[in-house]
């Protein structure tokens, strides 16, 4: 057998030779094809280089570019542009798109900034539509010098059902020279949306001139639909002009904060503490009621008298470093790269849903008169949805002669602070930022991101940001109203609301969120007392259709607002009940009202619920003496006439002691000493903040009443 195999060497050799010959022939064909492909690519790149050079020279006359790439499997894009006005250009963007991603409108990828730091980029995008196996995507506004490509779409899986890609790019600009800043991870945005076209063909890079309206026609069938850049959103033209102005201005170095109050002061101090920020101006009117703040702030002292951990120390630091100053000279706004407004927006009459925007309008006019191209203007005040893109924009444009979105950036970034924790809230809470366009949003993100230590920036539109702020305060007001109503129920049923609250709050676990708050004598402050009405008005102002809501039913939100407004009235009824148990009436009784601030351990007395209680008690014939250790009658614009800081003097001869604020000074009151000062065997004590122990006061002969204390409010008077 071995001999037999060896006897056929010639046949085996010839078969092997034939196979090798065919293989070499195939390789020769393959090499020839590769050679032609390389020649074509070389020619293509040469043509592109020439074309791009020409486009670069005439870029000032271009409004946009359209890149049409026609390939069934994969595509590569290198000639893209940089986002002007942000911290630094991207070095590479990798997008790995899957069919599932396209179905749900989510693009997954990674960003690689020049400093080499990598971070994930996942965010929901606009809907991505397919029309007849054509994927239509609009990338905007990615900009860069063509010698420094920053976007690379490296690969698209073979099973994605599309054959062509449209990329719309803005005019070419140069990248910023600013170095990368550590910690900034939210400055680059990829915006995808429908390109506004249904079919196209071609595979060339060509200029797009809106005036001549270039049209690229589909070659197949009877569907002759066009690409017309006039149909593109006008925002692109405006954004490019604004982006150029921001690029020329450079990074944000000088900041102005209008309104030196509970929001403006901590914000200004934190801005001034950011590395790279050269100076922050705090703008404050030199008025009789608030002009004193200017000298205090310039000495590094806080005019806010409540406990605000770290604020005084931070003010001392930034003033000492020459990075913060307060002034009444609004012309210095012209020196600023960014200006924020933190001004109150109350309602004159909540029934007609007409806010008093007078202070805000005055502030906007100050900004408008000194507005310069490339500046960022941010409203931090809580406002009716639609105000930023509506009234604020109109005033700024009218006063300045500039155009928002073209000459200057405009955004809304609502404050989310609570007195007593101002610095912590600004640093740690997520920050909502919404611009009137993408570049305004990006510039506002650049302003706020460096201040955050734990929170992140959440970008959205200006109107969405306005609704977010009014809604979150409305929800909190609703939660307080719910527990206040529960407290009223518990009083009627003779049980302790705090026992019920503890039981409800004990239910914890996955998917369980009760978030029950605390009942009390009423809701005060600048935000919760009016933000519901901003939200309600927003529906009227922006509603495109009639609101579909149960006929004849009051809004749940305004109903909740009414419950919280009722609580001071309920406090008066509890006071009247306690006095009656001691054999007295409101008429001719002296009431020691403890706490004028709306919140404990603070001097913030805006819209305090103690005021309607005092007015109603006086109207009923009572004498009311007000005490608050935190509110300074010499400086607080919300201090009532006759406010005293002598607690013993206020308690002396009182028939009823009514606690409206949970200040720490009231938690240590000794019943026997209070009864001695009151001078009667059975004074009344009414607790609106759960700060006293009912049993300790009842034992000493007090007629006790408390919010939600149905278990104690009917007690027998101790002799």
Q: Please identify the top-level CATH class of the largest domain.
A: Alpha Beta
Tell me the major beta sheet: 8 strands, mixed
Shape, per Cα inertia axes: elongated
Q: Which structural class best describes the helix and strand composition?
A: alpha/beta
**Mean pLDDT figure:** 74
CATH H-level superfamily of the largest domain = NAD(P)-binding Rossmann-like Domain
Count of the separate structural domains? 3
Number of helices: 20
Strand content: 5-15%
**Could you name the CATH topology of the largest domain?**
Rossmann fold
CATH architecture of the largest domain: 3-Layer(aba) Sandwich
The counted number of beta strands is 24
What does it look like?
The protein has 20 helices and 24 strands. It is an alpha/beta fold and 719 residues long. The chain folds into three domains: 59-209, no CATH class; 249-455, 3-Layer(aba) Sandwich (Rossmann fold), CATH 3.40.50; 464-719, Rossmann fold, CATH 3.40.50. It is elongated, with a radius of gyration of 34 Å. 42% of the residues are buried.
Keywords, separated by commas or semicolons:
single chain, alpha/beta, Rossmann fold, 3 domains, eight-stranded mixed beta sheet, 20 helices, 24 strands, disordered N terminus
């Amino acid at each position: 057998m071995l001999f037999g195999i060896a006897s056929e060497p010639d046949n085996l050799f010839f078969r092997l030779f034939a196979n090798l010959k065919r293989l070499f022939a195939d390789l020769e064909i393959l090499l020839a094809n590769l050679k032609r492909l390389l020649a074509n690519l070389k020619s293509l790149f040469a043509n592109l280089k020439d074309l791009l050079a020409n486009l670069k020279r005439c870029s000032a006359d271009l409004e946009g570019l359209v890149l049409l790439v026609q390939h069934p499997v994969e595509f590569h894009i290198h000639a893209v542009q940089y986002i002007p006005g942000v911290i630094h250009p991207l070095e590479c963007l990798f997008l790995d798109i899957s069919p599932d991603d396209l179905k749900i409108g989510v693009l997954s990828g990674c960003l690689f900034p020049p400093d080499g730091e990598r971070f994930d980029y996942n965010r929901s995008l606009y809907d991505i539509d397919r029309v007849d196996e054509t994927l239509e995507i609009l990338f905007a506004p990615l900009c860069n010098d063509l010698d420094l490509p920053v976007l690379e779409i490296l690969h698209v899986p073979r099973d994605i059902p599309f054959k062509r890609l449209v990329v719309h790019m803005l005019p070419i600009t140069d990248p910023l020279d600013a170095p990368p800043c550590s910690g900034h991870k939210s400055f680059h945005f990829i915006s995808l949306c429908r390109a506004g076209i249904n079919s196209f063909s071609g595979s060339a890079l060509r200029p797009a001139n809106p005036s001549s309206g270039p049209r690229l026609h589909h070659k197949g069938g009877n569907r002759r639909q066009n690409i017309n850049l006039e149909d593109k959103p006008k925002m692109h033209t405006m954004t490019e002009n604004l982006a150029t102005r921001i690029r020329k201005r450079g990074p944000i170095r000088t900041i102005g904060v209008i309104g030196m109050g509970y929001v403006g002061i901590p914000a200004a101090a934190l801005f001034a503490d950011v590395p790279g920020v050269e100076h922050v101006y705090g703008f404050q009117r030199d008025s009789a009621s608030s002009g004193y703040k200017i000298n205090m702030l310039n000495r590094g002292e806080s005019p806010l008298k409540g406990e605000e951990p770290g604020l005084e120390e931070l003010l001392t630091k930034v003033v000492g470093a020459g990075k913060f100053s307060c002034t009444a000279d609004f012309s210095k706004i012209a020196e600023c790269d960014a200006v924020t407004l933190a001004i109150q927006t109350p309602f004159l009459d909540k029934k007609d849903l007409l806010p008093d925007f007078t202070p805000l309008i005055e502030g906007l006019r100050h900004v408008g008169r000194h507005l310069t191209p490339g500046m960022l203007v941010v409203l931090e005040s809580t406002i009716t949805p639609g105000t930023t893109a509506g009234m604020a924009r109109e005033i700024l444009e009218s006063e300045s002669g500039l155009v928002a979105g073209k000459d200057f950036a405009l955004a809304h970034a609502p404050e989310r602070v609570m007195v007593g924790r101002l610095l912590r809230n600004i640093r740690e809470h997520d920050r909502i930022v919404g611009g009137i366009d993408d570049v305004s949003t990006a510039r506002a993100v650049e302003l706020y991101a460096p201040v955050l230590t734990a929170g992140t920036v959440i970008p959205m539109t200006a109107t969405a940001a306005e609704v977010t702020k009014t809604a979150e305060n409305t929800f909190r007001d609703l939660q307080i109203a719910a527990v206040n109503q529960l407290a009223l129920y518990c009083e009627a049923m003779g049980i302790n609301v705090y026992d019920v609250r503890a039981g409800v709050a004990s239910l914890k676990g996955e998917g369980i969120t009760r978030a029950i708050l605390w009942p009390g004598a009423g809701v005060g402050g600048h935000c919760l007392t009016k933000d519901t009405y901003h939200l309600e008005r927003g529906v009227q102002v922006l509603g495109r259709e009639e609101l579909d809501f149960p006929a004849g039913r009051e809004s749940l939100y305004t109903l909740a607002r009414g419950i919280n407004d009722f609580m001071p009235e309920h406090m008066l009824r509890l006071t009247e009940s306690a006095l009656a148990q001691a054999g007295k009436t409101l008429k001719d009784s002296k009431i020691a009202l403890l706490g004028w601030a709306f919140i404990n351990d603070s001097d913030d007395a805006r819209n305090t619920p103690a005021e309607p209680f005092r007015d109603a008690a006086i109207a009923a014939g009572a004498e009311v003496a007000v005490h608050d250790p935190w509110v300074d009658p010499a400086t607080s614009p919300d201090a009532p006439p006759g406010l005293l800081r002598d607690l013993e003097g206020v308690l002396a001869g009182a028939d009823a002691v009514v606690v409206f604020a949970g200040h720490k000074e009231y938690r240590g009151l000794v019943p026997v000493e209070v009864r001695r000062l009151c001078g009667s065997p059975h004074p009344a004590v009414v607790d609106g903040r759960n700060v006293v122990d009912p049993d300790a006061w009842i034992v000493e002969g007090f007629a006790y009443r408390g919010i939600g204390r149905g278990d104690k409010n009917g007690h027998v008077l101790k002799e």
